[in-house]
Backbone:
């Protein structure tokens, strides 16, 4: 029995070579996208959205505001005497906002 030799021209070989690479890359991207979507769907299934509890604000008649010697902001509850201390950067930021508000009131 004689074997039949099939010769494939070089242009056809290079075409199949580059096309094969493109197909492999496209297939891996599609599979990766599908797997990531399945992963996200699986992880999101058991999670509940976070509920943020916001405490109601207190009027100025019930609170006092002070700045201590370290430039920390103190918010004092007049009824119970309890207080909260915030860092100096918060105190400065609120003071700058208040000062800017007074400055614009005076210069209008």
Residues:
């Amino acid at each position: 029995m004689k074997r039949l030799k099939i010769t494939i021209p070089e242009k056809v070989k290079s075409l199949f070579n580059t096309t094969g690479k493109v197909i492999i890359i496209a297939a891996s991207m599609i599979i990766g996208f599908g797997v990531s979507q399945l992963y996200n769907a699986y992880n999101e299934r058991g999670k509940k959205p976070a509920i943020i509890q916001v405490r109601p604000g207190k009027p100025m008649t019930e609170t006092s505001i002070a700045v201590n010697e370290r430039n920390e902001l103190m918010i004092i509850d007049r009824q119970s005497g309890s207080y909260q201390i915030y860092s100096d950067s918060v105190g400065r930021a609120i003071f700058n906002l208040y000062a800017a508000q007074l400055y614009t009131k005076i210069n209008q």
Notes: The chain is about 50% helix and 15% strand. Residues 25 and 56 are 56 Å apart (CA to CA). Residues 9-53 form one domain.
